[in-house]
């Protein structure tokens, strides 16, 4: 069995995105057919919960729009000492990461997404937990930074037809991501983008990182709130 999160954008209410954990029988991961089968089974479980249309945001998505919005296929521009270059969002985020013991790693901007993913320097087990990101002289918090940078890359490529299509989906998943392995998720960012669009504040929110974070926090105070300490954990005094 495996667990994945279904991200459901909210048109109104105190939350912008509701997260629903779905448990489903894992179909294997060796062949393209097995990977597609996982998406289908995951979405069948979501449909049983009343979410009739679900879009997976990954290279394994059954729909072209979900594949286009994968960080491996999403292209963005970044400043480097050699000038501006085009890179994948996957490489941009991996190269921007600041972990407890290292980062950022701007040389990853120049690598294809799969190669940047495999570089162990940005892995938690090598350099500790993610504490933020640093890009083009600016610093970002982990979740809000990922959301802002991802949506800033995705928004310009979406056509009116794409938005019409996105509006027909009740939820978004990322079949490739075990939620225990990362605090950030492209499906969650897509759901947030859709919710902000539905509420008429997306374009204004993207004016800057500060405006984005303030807009999201005003509508959903819980999204970027620090996690509560685990039961029995001692709080540091200094």
Q: What spatial form do the alpha-carbon principal axes imply?
A: globular
**Strand sequence of the main sheet, in spatial order?**
6-7-8
**SSE series:** EEHEHEEHEHHEEHHEHHH
Class per helix and strand makeup: alpha+beta
Biggest β-sheet: count, sense, barrel?
A: 3 strands, antiparallel
- Helix tally? 10
Number of domains: 2
Count of strand segments = 9
Rg computed from alpha carbons, rounded to a whole number of angstroms: 18 Å
InterPro entries: NADAR-DarT1 (IPR053913)
Pfam families: NADAR-DarT1
Folded structure, characterized:
This protein has helices spanning about 30-50, 65-70, 90-95, 115-120, 125, 140-155, 160-165, 185-200, 200-205, 210-220, and strands spanning about 1-10, 15-25, 55, 75-80, 85-90, 95-100, 130-135, 140, 170-175. The strands form four sheets. The chain has a three-stranded antiparallel beta sheet. The protein has about 240 residues and is of the alpha+beta class. β4 (about 75-80) and β5 form a beta hairpin. The longest helix has 17 residues, at about 30-50. α6 (about 140-155) crosses α8 (about 185-200).
Q: What is the gist of this entry?
A:
The chain has helices at residues 32-48, 64-68, 89-96, 113-118, 124-127, 142-154, 160-166, 186-198, 202-205, 209-219; strands at residues 2-9, 17-24, 54-56, 75-80, 83-88, 97-99, 130-135, 138-140, 171-173.
